[in-house]
Amino acid sequence: MKVTVHRKAHFNAAHRLYRKDWSYEKNDVVFGKCNNPNFHGHNYELIASVTGEIDPETGYVIDVKILKNIIKAEVEDAFDHKNLNVEVPEFQNLNPTAENIAVVIYNKVKAKLNPKFDLEITLYETPRNFVTYSGE
Ligand code: NI
């Protein structure tokens, strides 16, 4: 019997979407306002979903404190109030789209979780725009 435990978190961060190897004009056509050279911010909402068997002893799939602490260390402390392009090493050469941010978060959180769990990351860049990634 598998159950999924979800933990929500939040961070604010700035980014710019562009490719260094493209002209400003091409970046403008592809990324529009997100190519603003002065960066812009988003209020990101994260849901980390951990699926596994219920431990018959505790009744937990995972102690949510463990998940909370992983998210704090790997996501909030690393990304909150940061300029993703400039201050976060993972995005030095990776466009910080919601898609790529979700993959980076997945990889960081998965590395700290017991491998017996399945993980899915849901990342809202705006209340209407969100992506999911589960390691496929
Ligand atoms: Ni943006």
From TrEMBL:
Pathway(s) the chain acts in: Purine metabolism; 7-cyano-7-deazaguanine biosynthesis
Catalytic activity: 7,8-dihydroneopterin 3'-triphosphate + H2O = 6-carboxy-5,6,7,8-tetrahydropterin + triphosphate + acetaldehyde + 2 H(+)
Cofactor section: Zn(2+)
Cofactor note: Binds 1 zinc ion per subunit.
Matches recorded under InterPro entries: 6-PTP_synth/QueD, 6-PTP_synth/QueD_sf
Keywords per UniProt: Lyase, Metal-binding, Queuosine biosynthesis, Zinc
E.C. code: 4.-.-.-
Pfam families for this protein: PTPS (PF01242)
Enzyme class: lyase
Family: Belongs to the PTPS family. QueD subfamily.
Name of the protein this chain belongs to: 6-carboxy-5,6,7,8-tetrahydropterin synthase
Organism: Winogradskyella vincentii
